[in-house]
Write a structure and sequence with these properties.
The protein contains 4 helices and 3 strands; from the N terminus they run βααββαα. With 86 residues, it is of the alpha+beta class.
Length: 86
């Protein structure tokens, strides 16, 4: 895993061993921080101001190494990832 690579949700979920729904819930609940662990790639045409919320044609990309490090911290504290998003 490269420290600086950003990967889409499908690849991130495969690499991190969680579902894309779990990744989404971790992001939405603030466990994964925007700009650090994930970022939004907006597919809006140039000149269009995007809403702050994520729209259907936007893609979320994750920094795999940093997400893995964060998830390992939770695991070291005996937090079960599925319980975080239940």
């Amino acid at each position: 895993m490269n420290n600086f690579s950003w990967d889409n949700a499908e690849k991130a979920s495969q690499e991190l061993g969680v579902s894309s729904k779990t990744l989404s819930q971790l992001r939405e609940r603030g466990y994964l921080k925007q700009g650090t662990h994930w970022r939004r790639i907006t597919n809006a045409p140039k000149g269009i101001t995007c809403k702050l919320s994520i729209v259907d044609n936007d893609e979320i990309h994750y920094r795999l190494k940093w997400c893995a490090e964060e998830m390992n911290i939770w695991k070291s504290r005996n937090a079960k990832i599925p319980n975080l998003v239940a």
